[in-house]
Amino acid sequence: MGLLDGKVAIITGAGGGLGEAYAKLFAREGAAVVVNDLGGARDGSGAGTSAAAQKVVDAITADGGRAVANGDDVSIVEGGQAIFQTAIDAFGQVDILVNNAGILRDKTFANTGEQDWDLVVKVHLKGTYNCTAPVWKYLKDNGRKGVIIMTSSTSGLYGNFGQSNYGAAKAGIYGFMRVLALEGARYGIRVMGLAPGAFTRMTSDLPGMRDREPSVLALPENIAPAVLYMASDLAEGQTGKVLGVSQRGVSEMKMLQVPGFRPSEPYTAQDVAAHADEVFFPADWERVVTL
Ligand code: NAD
Q: Which residue segment(s) compose the domain that 277 sits in?
Protein backbone atom coordinates (compact mmCIF):
# COMPACT_ATOMS: atom_id res chain seq x y z
CA MET A 1 0.00 0.00 0.00
CA GLY A 2 1.36 3.38 -1.00
CA LEU A 3 0.41 6.65 0.64
CA LEU A 4 -0.81 8.02 -2.70
CA ASP A 5 -2.47 4.93 -4.20
CA GLY A 6 -5.14 5.95 -6.72
CA LYS A 7 -4.10 9.62 -6.74
CA VAL A 8 -2.95 11.75 -9.63
CA ALA A 9 -0.35 14.41 -8.91
CA ILE A 10 0.92 17.30 -11.02
CA ILE A 11 4.41 18.50 -10.09
CA THR A 12 5.73 21.57 -11.88
CA GLY A 13 9.44 22.08 -12.50
CA ALA A 14 10.00 18.37 -11.88
CA GLY A 15 12.71 17.83 -14.50
CA GLY A 16 15.40 18.21 -11.82
CA GLY A 17 16.11 19.26 -8.25
CA LEU A 18 13.34 19.08 -5.68
CA GLY A 19 10.54 18.46 -8.17
CA GLU A 20 12.29 15.40 -9.58
CA ALA A 21 12.63 13.97 -6.07
CA TYR A 22 8.94 14.60 -5.34
CA ALA A 23 7.90 13.00 -8.64
CA LYS A 24 9.93 9.86 -8.01
CA LEU A 25 8.75 9.48 -4.41
CA PHE A 26 5.10 10.19 -5.25
CA ALA A 27 5.23 7.59 -8.04
CA ARG A 28 6.77 5.03 -5.68
CA GLU A 29 3.89 5.75 -3.28
CA GLY A 30 1.35 4.87 -5.96
CA ALA A 31 0.51 8.21 -7.58
CA ALA A 32 0.32 8.69 -11.33
CA VAL A 33 2.44 11.79 -11.91
CA VAL A 34 2.49 14.60 -14.46
CA VAL A 35 6.13 15.64 -14.60
CA ASN A 36 6.17 19.21 -15.88
CA ASP A 37 9.35 21.07 -16.81
CA LEU A 38 10.16 23.71 -19.39
CA GLY A 39 13.89 22.94 -19.35
CA GLY A 40 16.30 25.84 -19.43
CA ALA A 41 18.88 27.38 -17.16
CA ARG A 42 18.58 28.58 -13.58
CA ASP A 43 17.87 32.15 -14.73
CA GLY A 44 15.05 31.01 -17.03
CA SER A 45 17.05 31.37 -20.25
CA GLY A 46 17.25 28.67 -22.92
CA ALA A 47 13.94 27.11 -21.93
CA GLY A 48 11.60 25.27 -24.26
CA THR A 49 12.36 21.56 -24.15
CA SER A 50 10.59 18.77 -22.31
CA ALA A 51 13.71 16.55 -22.40
CA ALA A 52 14.36 17.02 -18.66
CA ALA A 53 10.79 16.02 -17.81
CA GLN A 54 10.95 13.03 -20.15
CA LYS A 55 14.14 11.78 -18.47
CA VAL A 56 12.38 11.75 -15.09
CA VAL A 57 9.36 10.01 -16.61
CA ASP A 58 11.63 7.36 -18.14
CA ALA A 59 13.19 6.71 -14.73
CA ILE A 60 9.77 6.43 -13.08
CA THR A 61 8.37 4.06 -15.69
CA ALA A 62 11.55 1.95 -15.61
CA ASP A 63 10.89 1.59 -11.88
CA GLY A 64 7.33 0.38 -12.55
CA GLY A 65 5.61 3.71 -11.86
CA ARG A 66 3.15 5.75 -13.88
CA ALA A 67 4.09 9.19 -15.21
CA VAL A 68 3.73 11.44 -18.21
CA ALA A 69 5.94 14.34 -19.32
CA ASN A 70 4.76 17.87 -19.98
CA GLY A 71 6.94 20.72 -21.29
CA ASP A 72 4.59 23.66 -20.86
CA ASP A 73 5.51 27.01 -19.35
CA VAL A 74 3.94 27.65 -15.94
CA SER A 75 4.36 31.40 -16.36
CA ILE A 76 1.52 31.75 -18.86
CA VAL A 77 -2.18 31.01 -18.36
CA GLU A 78 -2.26 28.65 -21.36
CA GLY A 79 0.65 26.70 -19.87
CA GLY A 80 -1.20 26.10 -16.60
CA GLN A 81 -4.29 25.00 -18.50
CA ALA A 82 -2.26 22.63 -20.71
CA ILE A 83 -0.54 21.07 -17.68
CA PHE A 84 -3.94 20.40 -16.07
CA GLN A 85 -5.27 18.98 -19.37
CA THR A 86 -2.27 16.64 -19.62
CA ALA A 87 -3.29 15.09 -16.30
CA ILE A 88 -6.92 14.72 -17.38
CA ASP A 89 -6.00 13.26 -20.77
CA ALA A 90 -3.44 10.80 -19.37
CA PHE A 91 -5.02 9.79 -16.07
CA GLY A 92 -8.61 11.15 -16.03
CA GLN A 93 -8.34 13.06 -12.74
CA VAL A 94 -6.22 15.36 -10.57
CA ASP A 95 -5.87 15.13 -6.78
CA ILE A 96 -2.59 16.87 -5.96
CA LEU A 97 -0.77 19.88 -7.39
CA VAL A 98 2.72 20.81 -6.26
CA ASN A 99 3.69 24.27 -7.52
CA ASN A 100 7.45 23.93 -7.56
CA ALA A 101 8.84 25.43 -10.81
CA GLY A 102 11.18 28.33 -10.27
CA ILE A 103 14.06 30.44 -11.49
CA LEU A 104 16.51 32.88 -9.91
CA ARG A 105 17.83 36.27 -11.00
CA ASP A 106 19.66 37.39 -7.87
CA LYS A 107 20.98 40.96 -7.79
CA THR A 108 20.84 43.81 -5.34
CA PHE A 109 17.71 45.88 -5.88
CA ALA A 110 19.82 48.71 -7.35
CA ASN A 111 20.92 46.34 -10.11
CA THR A 112 17.59 44.57 -10.65
CA GLY A 113 16.10 45.61 -13.98
CA GLU A 114 12.41 45.46 -14.83
CA GLN A 115 12.93 42.27 -16.82
CA ASP A 116 14.64 40.56 -13.87
CA TRP A 117 11.74 41.60 -11.67
CA ASP A 118 8.99 40.63 -14.10
CA LEU A 119 10.34 37.24 -15.11
CA VAL A 120 10.93 36.03 -11.56
CA VAL A 121 7.51 37.20 -10.37
CA LYS A 122 5.93 35.73 -13.50
CA VAL A 123 7.39 32.25 -13.07
CA HIS A 124 6.90 31.99 -9.29
CA LEU A 125 3.81 33.98 -8.33
CA LYS A 126 1.87 34.15 -11.59
CA GLY A 127 3.00 30.60 -12.36
CA THR A 128 1.49 29.40 -9.10
CA TYR A 129 -1.74 31.17 -10.03
CA ASN A 130 -1.70 29.77 -13.58
CA CYS A 131 -1.35 26.17 -12.45
CA THR A 132 -3.65 26.44 -9.45
CA ALA A 133 -6.60 28.08 -11.21
CA PRO A 134 -7.66 25.16 -13.47
CA VAL A 135 -7.05 22.56 -10.75
CA TRP A 136 -9.03 24.63 -8.24
CA LYS A 137 -11.98 24.99 -10.60
CA TYR A 138 -11.91 21.26 -11.40
CA LEU A 139 -11.79 20.19 -7.74
CA LYS A 140 -14.52 22.65 -6.70
CA ASP A 141 -16.84 21.91 -9.65
CA ASN A 142 -16.49 18.16 -9.14
CA GLY A 143 -16.84 18.21 -5.35
CA ARG A 144 -13.47 16.51 -5.17
CA LYS A 145 -11.10 16.74 -2.24
CA GLY A 146 -7.58 17.74 -3.18
CA VAL A 147 -4.28 19.12 -1.99
CA ILE A 148 -2.41 22.09 -3.40
CA ILE A 149 1.16 22.69 -2.24
CA MET A 150 2.88 25.99 -2.99
CA THR A 151 6.59 26.69 -2.71
CA SER A 152 7.52 29.73 -0.67
CA SER A 153 10.95 30.49 0.78
CA THR A 154 12.64 32.02 3.77
CA SER A 155 13.62 34.76 1.29
CA GLY A 156 9.98 35.81 1.26
CA LEU A 157 9.01 34.88 4.80
CA TYR A 158 12.04 36.53 6.44
CA GLY A 159 14.04 38.28 3.69
CA ASN A 160 17.35 37.59 2.01
CA PHE A 161 19.97 39.94 0.61
CA GLY A 162 19.95 40.22 -3.19
CA GLN A 163 16.57 38.59 -3.73
CA SER A 164 14.04 41.44 -3.90
CA ASN A 165 12.24 39.97 -6.92
CA TYR A 166 12.31 36.40 -5.62
CA GLY A 167 11.46 37.35 -2.03
CA ALA A 168 8.49 39.44 -3.20
CA ALA A 169 7.19 36.54 -5.28
CA LYS A 170 7.68 34.02 -2.47
CA ALA A 171 5.95 36.25 0.09
CA GLY A 172 3.12 36.68 -2.42
CA ILE A 173 2.85 32.91 -2.66
CA TYR A 174 2.56 32.75 1.14
CA GLY A 175 -0.36 35.21 1.05
CA PHE A 176 -1.99 33.32 -1.81
CA MET A 177 -1.66 30.06 0.14
CA ARG A 178 -3.21 31.54 3.30
CA VAL A 179 -6.22 32.90 1.43
CA LEU A 180 -6.84 29.72 -0.59
CA ALA A 181 -6.60 27.62 2.57
CA LEU A 182 -9.51 29.61 4.02
CA GLU A 183 -11.55 29.45 0.82
CA GLY A 184 -10.73 25.79 0.21
CA ALA A 185 -11.88 24.60 3.63
CA ARG A 186 -15.51 24.57 2.53
CA TYR A 187 -14.67 22.39 -0.49
CA GLY A 188 -12.32 19.96 1.24
CA ILE A 189 -9.29 21.39 -0.57
CA ARG A 190 -6.19 21.60 1.60
CA VAL A 191 -3.57 24.21 0.71
CA MET A 192 -0.11 23.93 2.19
CA GLY A 193 3.19 25.75 1.76
CA LEU A 194 6.82 24.72 1.75
CA ALA A 195 9.99 26.67 2.50
CA PRO A 196 12.76 24.26 1.54
CA GLY A 197 16.47 24.43 2.17
CA ALA A 198 17.97 21.99 -0.31
CA PHE A 199 21.15 21.34 -2.22
CA THR A 200 20.15 21.80 -5.88
CA ARG A 201 21.45 23.72 -8.87
CA MET A 202 19.58 26.71 -7.44
CA THR A 203 21.65 26.78 -4.26
CA SER A 204 24.78 24.65 -4.75
CA ASP A 205 27.05 27.63 -5.54
CA LEU A 206 25.76 29.90 -2.77
CA PRO A 207 28.00 30.85 0.15
CA GLY A 208 27.58 28.25 2.87
CA MET A 209 26.67 25.55 0.32
CA ARG A 210 29.55 25.63 -2.17
CA ASP A 211 32.39 25.19 0.31
CA ARG A 212 31.39 21.90 1.91
CA GLU A 213 29.65 18.63 1.32
CA PRO A 214 25.90 19.09 1.61
CA SER A 215 24.20 17.62 4.63
CA VAL A 216 22.44 14.42 3.67
CA LEU A 217 19.20 15.96 4.96
CA ALA A 218 19.56 18.79 2.41
CA LEU A 219 19.50 16.41 -0.55
CA PRO A 220 16.24 16.67 -2.51
CA GLU A 221 15.30 13.03 -1.86
CA ASN A 222 15.42 13.75 1.87
CA ILE A 223 13.24 16.86 1.57
CA ALA A 224 10.63 14.94 -0.43
CA PRO A 225 9.19 12.87 2.48
CA ALA A 226 7.89 16.03 4.17
CA VAL A 227 6.19 17.06 0.94
CA LEU A 228 4.74 13.56 0.63
CA TYR A 229 3.38 13.99 4.16
CA MET A 230 1.65 17.24 3.18
CA ALA A 231 0.23 15.71 -0.01
CA SER A 232 -1.06 12.55 1.64
CA ASP A 233 -3.98 11.80 3.94
CA LEU A 234 -1.47 11.66 6.81
CA ALA A 235 -1.87 15.46 6.88
CA GLU A 236 -5.67 15.39 6.88
CA GLY A 237 -6.93 18.46 8.75
CA GLN A 238 -3.75 20.40 8.08
CA THR A 239 -4.19 23.43 5.86
CA GLY A 240 -2.84 26.98 5.54
CA LYS A 241 0.54 26.07 6.98
CA VAL A 242 4.10 26.37 5.68
CA LEU A 243 6.57 23.67 6.59
CA GLY A 244 10.21 24.61 6.56
CA VAL A 245 12.13 21.53 5.42
CA SER A 246 15.91 21.60 5.47
CA GLN A 247 19.00 20.02 6.98
CA ARG A 248 17.57 21.19 10.32
CA GLY A 249 14.51 18.99 9.89
CA VAL A 250 10.87 19.96 9.54
CA SER A 251 9.13 22.85 11.28
CA GLU A 252 6.17 25.12 10.73
CA MET A 253 7.05 28.65 9.62
CA LYS A 254 4.85 31.69 9.97
CA MET A 255 4.74 35.39 9.42
CA LEU A 256 4.09 36.36 13.03
CA GLN A 257 2.94 39.27 15.10
CA VAL A 258 4.42 39.88 18.55
CA PRO A 259 2.03 40.79 21.41
CA GLY A 260 3.26 44.39 21.06
CA PHE A 261 2.60 47.67 22.87
CA ARG A 262 -1.14 47.77 23.63
CA PRO A 263 -2.06 51.22 24.97
CA SER A 264 -5.62 52.02 26.07
CA GLU A 265 -5.29 55.71 25.13
CA PRO A 266 -3.85 57.68 22.17
CA TYR A 267 -0.07 57.61 22.26
CA THR A 268 2.96 59.43 20.93
CA ALA A 269 5.94 58.27 18.92
CA GLN A 270 7.97 58.69 22.10
CA ASP A 271 5.64 56.24 23.86
CA VAL A 272 6.24 53.73 21.08
CA ALA A 273 9.98 54.17 21.46
CA ALA A 274 9.67 53.75 25.22
CA HIS A 275 7.89 50.42 24.66
CA ALA A 276 10.28 49.18 21.99
CA ASP A 277 10.84 45.98 23.96
CA GLU A 278 7.19 45.06 23.44
CA VAL A 279 6.87 46.40 19.89
CA PHE A 280 9.76 44.42 18.43
CA PHE A 281 10.57 40.76 18.50
CA PRO A 282 13.29 40.00 21.04
CA ALA A 283 16.77 40.41 19.57
CA ASP A 284 17.51 36.70 19.74
CA TRP A 285 14.40 35.92 17.64
CA GLU A 286 16.59 36.22 14.53
CA ARG A 287 18.64 33.37 15.88
CA VAL A 288 15.55 31.18 15.91
CA VAL A 289 14.39 31.85 12.37
CA THR A 290 17.48 32.59 10.29
CA LEU A 291 18.93 29.75 8.27
P1 NAD B 1 15.83 23.71 -9.73
O2 NAD B 1 16.36 24.81 -10.58
O3 NAD B 1 16.58 22.44 -9.70
O4 NAD B 1 14.32 23.34 -10.15
C5 NAD B 1 13.42 24.26 -10.70
C6 NAD B 1 12.83 23.65 -11.96
O7 NAD B 1 11.80 24.51 -12.47
C8 NAD B 1 13.86 23.49 -13.06
O9 NAD B 1 13.92 22.13 -13.48
C10 NAD B 1 13.36 24.41 -14.17
O11 NAD B 1 13.62 23.93 -15.49
C12 NAD B 1 11.86 24.48 -13.88
N13 NAD B 1 11.24 25.68 -14.44
C14 NAD B 1 11.74 26.94 -14.42
N15 NAD B 1 10.89 27.78 -15.04
C16 NAD B 1 9.84 27.03 -15.46
C17 NAD B 1 8.64 27.35 -16.17
N18 NAD B 1 8.37 28.60 -16.57
N19 NAD B 1 7.76 26.34 -16.43
C20 NAD B 1 8.03 25.07 -16.03
N21 NAD B 1 9.16 24.72 -15.38
C22 NAD B 1 10.05 25.69 -15.10
O23 NAD B 1 15.68 24.31 -8.27
P24 NAD B 1 15.07 23.70 -6.92
O25 NAD B 1 15.99 24.10 -5.83
O26 NAD B 1 14.70 22.28 -7.08
O27 NAD B 1 13.75 24.62 -6.74
C28 NAD B 1 12.44 24.10 -6.66
C29 NAD B 1 11.57 25.13 -5.97
O30 NAD B 1 11.98 25.29 -4.61
C31 NAD B 1 11.63 26.53 -6.58
O32 NAD B 1 10.34 27.12 -6.53
C33 NAD B 1 12.55 27.27 -5.65
O34 NAD B 1 12.35 28.68 -5.71
C35 NAD B 1 12.17 26.66 -4.33
N36 NAD B 1 13.15 26.83 -3.27
C37 NAD B 1 14.31 26.10 -3.30
C38 NAD B 1 15.22 26.26 -2.26
C39 NAD B 1 16.48 25.43 -2.19
O40 NAD B 1 17.14 25.48 -1.13
N41 NAD B 1 16.83 24.68 -3.23
C42 NAD B 1 14.97 27.18 -1.24
C43 NAD B 1 13.78 27.90 -1.24
C44 NAD B 1 12.88 27.70 -2.28
A: 262-291
